[in-house]
Amino acid sequence: MGIVIRNARAVLPEGAEDAVRETSIYIEQDRIAGIGQAPAGFCEDRVIDGTDKLVIPGLINCHTHSYMSFMRNVADDLSFMDWLFGTIDPIEQQMTDEDTYWGANLAIIEMMKSGTTCFNDMQMNIHQTTRAVKESGMRAVISRGLVGNGNDEGGQMRLRQAYEERDAAKDCDRLSFVLGPHAPYTCDEAYLRIVAEEAKKNGMGIHIHLSESESEIAQIREKNGCSPIALADRCGLFDVPAIAAHCVQIDEADMDILKAKHVSVVTNPASNMKLGNGFAPVAGMLAKGINVCLGTDGAASNNCLNLFHELSLLTLIHKGTGRTPQCVSAREGFRIATINGARALGMEKEIGSIEVGKKADLAILDLNTPSLTPRNNLIAGLSYSANGSEVDTVLIDGKVTMENRKLLTIDEQLVYRKIQGIIERMGLDQKTY
User: Would 372 be classed as within a structural domain?
Assistant: First the structure.
C-alpha cells in the first residue's frame, strides 16, 4: 500500500543537525520510499493531508517497565529502597500474567498517544508484553528482568524464560530481544558474569540499571570494592552492545569506561528526581561523546510515560543545574529522544530519523495548537512547549495505528476497565482525597 503525507512540515536530518522543511513523504509498505518526490512507479493508495501538520520521527523510549502502568500514583514520596522493596516488590509478587498484559496495553496507549513508536522494556511475566506489542502494532525491544545469585535455579529459570520469549516471537519483526540483568544489587557478581557469557554466546545485547542511587553506590562499593559501572565492566557486560539505565551517581572514571566500551546511557529525569536520586551528568557524558538517550522509567516511579514531558525536563534541568542556557539544547534534546535512542538499540539504520529507506515510524503533530503557535522555531517548540497532546496521527511500520487521536489497534475503554479491575483486586484503589 502506498501512502503519501502531502504538503507537511517535517523534521529532516541535515548533516549533524535537523531542520524543518516543507515537503511530502512517500511510504511504500513499511518504509519511507521518497521525500519531496515520489519514487518511480509509486502507487498512491492513500493521501494524508499534511496541511498545518508537523511530521517527526517517532520518539524512542529507551527505558521503561510497561507492566507498571497500573502502579501509577501508588508509591509516591518514598526513598528509593523503600519505594522498590517496601511497596513495588510486594505488588509485583501479586501480579498475574494478565495483569502484565493489560498494564502493557495501558502503557502502549499512553506512549502511542504522545508520539512514541518504539520502547525498550524490562518486564517480568513472559509473553504478555510481546502479546500486547503484536496486537497494537507498536515496536519494542524486550528484556526479561534477570535476578540471580551464581548458578542458582531462579537465575537459570529466568534466563530460560528470556530465550523462550525470544524464540516464541520470531514471527514479529517489530520485536527484538536483549538480556536484562536487573541491577548489581539484585544480581551477584557470579550471576552477572553468567549473563555476560550468555549474551556473548547468543549474540544479544544487555539492558541493565546502573548507578541509580547513592545507597546502591555504597552497597556495591562495600561488597565489590568498586562502582557499579566498574563492576559491570569487569563482569563482561560491556563486551556486547549495552544500555545502562540511569547512571546518575557516576564520576569521571565511570564515564571513561562508558565511553571506551561504547555503552549507551538512558537518562530518566522525572524518575530520578521523583525518587530523590539526583541528576545524571548528561552534559559531561555528551562532552565525552557517550551516546545518551532518553527514557521515562516505569509509571510507578515517573507516573507518566509521555516522552515529551521527559524531553522538556531534559532540556531544562541541566541548564539550571549547570547554570548555562546552552546546556543540552533543544536540537540536542530532540536527537537524544530519536536517533540516539535508535543508535542505543542498534536500529539507527532502521528508525530514529526521516530518511529514504528507513521504516515509516512517524508521528504527525497538529500545528493548530497554542503550544506550537507561532511556528517560528518548531524544534525548540518540541522541547520547550509541546506536551504530547499535539500528536494527531501515528504510523508504525508503515501502518496507521492512530488517526485523529483515535487508536485503531487497541480498545481503550476495555483497557481502562481491565486496569480498574486490577487495582481493585490488589487493593490499590484506596482513596486519598
Answer: yes
Residue type, 102: W
Q: What is residue 128's three-state secondary structure?
A: helix
Does residue 98 fall inside a structural domain? yes
| Closest C-alpha among 143, 243, 142, 149 to residue 192 | 149
pLDDT in tens, 57-99: 999 999 999 999 998 988 788 888 888 888 888 888 888 999 9
In a domain, 350, yes or no: no
CATH classification at residue 44: 2.30.40.10
How far from each other are the two terminal CA atoms of the chain, in whole angstroms? 51
Please indicate, yes or no, if residue 427 is contained in any of the structural domains: no
DSSP string, 305-361: --HHHHHHHHHHHHHHHHT-TTSS-HHHHHHHTTHHHHHHTT-TTTSSS--TTSB--
Dump pLDDT digits (tens) for 115-149: 999 999 999 999 999 999 999 999 999 999 999 99
Q: In the structure, what pLDDT confidence band is assigned to residue 432 with cuts at 50, 70 and 90?
A: very low
